[in-house]
Each structure stands twice: as structure tokens, then as C-alpha cells.
Amino acid sequence: MLKLTQRVDSGTASTTLTLPLDQRIRSRVKVTLDDGSEAGLFLPRGSILRDGDLVASVDGVIVEVRAASETVSTVTSRDPHLLARACYHLGNRHVPLQIAPGFVRYQHDHVLDDMVRGLGLEVSVELAAFEPEPGAYGDYGRGPGHGHQHGHAHEHHHH
Prior knowledge:
With 159 residues, the protein is an alpha+beta fold. The chain is built from 3 helices and 10 strands. It has helices at 21-24, 80-91, 110-118; strands at residues 2-8, 15-19, 28-32, 38-42, 54-57, 62-67, 69-76, 98-100, 103-107, 122-129. The strands form 2 sheets. A 6-stranded mixed β-sheet has the order 2-6-5-1-4-3. The protein has a 4-stranded antiparallel β-sheet with strand order 8-9-7-10.
């Protein structure tokens, strides 16, 4: 099994690895390369792989990472104020967001879709690559129970 242990800045990839976000944020995971061969990611903790990143094995095999299409909710609007409100309310729930001119995207959740529609925005559920903002603290806010430290205090209620 190929062991991919480091990120590299340049080189020629011999194959690709297409992963959804949930696997691109894991530093230790067994994967199947796009050519069908097995590999393992053994990266430093906290590594987040983005579309186009290159990872390599100790013996110099280079693999290009691709963001897989996954089910996402995409909110579009020509009104930047409405999009900003959506970002505020979604961010307040620690939802990882992909923010771009004219749209905001998050991993599909019908409850969040209903909330955003309640703000007066339209939501489209689609298959697309998901590349969220890394955030000021370098993580993707993995929902309740995620470990984080930031500038405000709050409790996570575990039931």
C-alpha cells in the first residue's frame, strides 16, 4: 500500500485522489486512488487537503488531490446583505461555509435549508465540490463537540 506522508509544492502527479471534504480533513485515512490502487494518508494532524494539492510518498510518488462532488446546498442572491445574513446565521451554528461572490454553499441539511429560506433566500440542492473557508482558527467547525478555542464562550449541550 502506498503511504502518502507529506504535502509537496510542485511535481508531476502520477495519479489523482478524489475525496469529499469529510475525508480531506482527516490526517489518517485509508483511501482508494482514482486508478483503483489502495493508499493511506499519514499526514500531520490538522492537515486539510484542498482541490489541487499534491501529496507524496517517501519514495517520491506524487498524487494530486481532487475535491469530490457531494450533496450541498447552494444559496444564491444578487443581494449581498441577504447573503451576509445567511452567512451570519449559518456561521453562528458553526457550519462550514464556502463563500464566493454571489453564493454561499454548505453541506446539505434540510433544517438549515429551511432556516435560510426563512431569511428570504432560495436554496438549491446540488452535487458540487465543497471547498469551505478554513476559518480564522484553521478548522472547519465540525459541529457540536468539536474542539476549538475562539474569542467567545459557549456551552455545547451533549444529549
